[in-house]
Request: fold
Amino acid sequence: MTAELSPPQLPMQRDCPLHPPPDYQRLRAQSPVSRFTWPNGVQAWLVTRYADVRAALGDRRLSVHRTASPPPSLALGRASGVMLPRSLVGMDPPEHTLWRRLIIREMTARRMARLRPRIEEIVDEHLERMARTGPPADLVPAFALPVPSLVICELLGIPPADRAEFQRHTEVISAVDSAAGQVQAASSALMGYIGELIAAKRRAPGDDILSHLAQATVDGPAPDSDGALGNGMLLLIAGHETTANMIALRVVTLLEYPDQRRLVREDPALIDRAVEELLRFHAVIQYGLVRRATEDLSIGGQQVQAGDWVVCSLASANRDLASCAGDPAEFRAGREPASHTSFGYGIHQCAGQHLARLELRAALSGLFRRFPGLRLAEPSGQLPFRTDMFVYGLHRVPLCW
Ligand code: HEM
Reply:
């Protein structure tokens, strides 16, 4: 480690809410794999370069299995407070391989494309409601939170009659003003509900993911029903908070870059590139992905011992010069798609990425088509960004049109 550079302190301060903390740039240049101490006293390595992040996430000697002690990420910022039963994100091979295969075949680009008309319908319903009751409107409760939640209901096969209650629980889990006890109560109610639904679908399956997971534990290869519950809950949580914040943050970004927004309006064929560039520009898992070394290894030339914690910063990797052609700090809607790390890398790479892209595309196209004069109702400097949360984004986005 270079003498002039003090060890990173997490969370790092941002100069601008639309860019990652500037310290990442200094770390990439001078100390790309550096030791730091989490506020709870746990020491870890912070990996900041694109090539090292990808190499680390692809390295089987770094495990996601965290039985020995709680992961440091829980001590930083407000985690959702939801304790998942065993799911993909906490499994190593061979258990991970089995469940991953079951889930990935439900989430292929082709299967997700079949959901597209329904996603567009959900988007339009919410835009019409916004138009009836506004302006103004707060994008977060009016659109960004309920749209992904209803899409997940479709995917998981939540019966229409249960959706209002299901959404009430997911709202409590995501709301900034929910007390820890409320979040825990809502998540155990949700877990109880999903558990009962899986049992019901085991008896009378439909054509949805929960039914398929439930069936796999009856006549398929899955060894236990715990995994069906854990992975059902994972799909619900992984697909909700990330996508909701992704929508909110990307809408604000497009509003703050009117020239780039104009480019997409003048050439709608650019929307797919714009979506990919928006994904690269903001990696919403703000502190990075946590792993633990099962053996001694070297990352970016730095010796890491068995048992050490490793945190891979996706936000930093996406701003590394090696990650894309041209200046990575610039938001260019028409940029040649870069192979960013926002969905992770390696065997745990996001299983919901095709769906996330579809949702983002439908949400942005729908919103700017329905409200061509959309603008922020407050200066962007006053917006409440989620600087203290595991998933970066916004608590509130007041809009008018
Ligand atoms: C923009 C929205 C999203 C972002 C940024 C995102 C990001 C990520 C990242 C970084 C990982 C890797 C975690 C790790 O390696 O430890 C991941 C895993 C995962 N994501 Fe997403 N995700 C998004 C949306 C979704 C959606 C919509 C779903 C499904 C409904 C989903 C389901 C999953 C699942 C099941 C995994 C675990 C994969 C595994 O461990 O094998 N995600 N996601």
